[in-house]
Amino acid sequence: MNFLLETLQLIVMSIYYNVEAFVRLFIPFKKKNVTGEIVLITGAGSGIGRLMAERFARLGVSLVLWDVNQEGMKETARLVKEKGATRVHHYQCDCSDKVEVYRVADQVKREVGDVSILINNAGIVTGRNFMDAPDSLIEKTIEVNTMAHFWTYKAFLPAMTANNHGHLVSVASTAGMIGVNGLADYCASKFAAIGFAESVALELLATGKDGVKTTIVCPHFMNTGMFDGCNSKWPVLVPVLEPDYVAKKIIEAILTDQVYLLLPKSMYILMGMKKILPFKTGNLLGMYLGAFNFMDAFKGRVKKE
């Protein structure tokens, strides 16, 4: 009997959430007030990390900026103050180093307070074929793009669950949903980041901590320093994204408690195609979603998000 009831519940809830998603396409959800929240952004020294910080500056939050690049982070702090932020704190932190993450997190708790919105944004890409990538770079990619999320969650999630209030944001990639030629280590790290974020989100729901919201962001390649020189083969369907647009959509997703954000919107259709097409056909998408002359754009350099 329980099996039948649970099956019926699954069907009803699936219909409900699909209808909700459809309605959301036409009627935007009310945005929540984040005034007074403590927002921590990793990788805030450049790219969309900096742009998100600038947008949060107008919302009355306390900003905590983390980056391994101290000069870039100081520049972000200066820019957000110009945008109106009055409470800005910045800390140099290598998110791939567990000990350093815990140490700096304790410093943030003492000097600023408990983080209530955590945005895991820091990331790197090597841009080399799998067999050409040194072991050290593969390990660094996993440490920054995946393991760092484990350590920041461990550091800041306890306070959120104690208060049943907060928001966890994982900035992943569409490369975390479909394999891309020439990005084996990067794709693996982003697949793992998505799986981790989804699993923690389910743990929170299972333990009744529904006040802690989660958002998983999967943008296509962006026009940042990380992907300089890359061009989309399908610019109309899957354009290279402008970082300011991505930052804007991420902030909107956070303010409306959107669970998944795929950019551009065509990615929702393409991801569905991957699920229903035969293996070989579906995975051809991974070759064409990659950028034209993708490997030439990197020239063996490690790039940071």
TrEMBL record:
It holds the Pfam family adh_short. One of its GO terms (molecular function) is oxidoreductase activity, acting on the CH-OH group of donors, NAD or NADP as acceptor. GO terms for cellular component: lipid droplet. CDD domains: 17beta-HSDXI-like_SDR_c (cd05339). The keyword Methyltransferase does not apply. Keywords: NAD, Oxidoreductase. It comes from the Eukaryota. PROSITE patterns: ADH_SHORT. SUPFAM superfamilies: NAD(P)-binding Rossmann-fold domains. InterPro entries: NAD(P)-bd_dom_sf, Sc_DH/Rdtase_CS, SDR_fam. Belongs to the short-chain dehydrogenases/reductases (SDR) family. This is Epidermal retinol dehydrogenase 2-like. It comes from Salvelinus namaycush (Lake trout). The gene is LOC120055522.
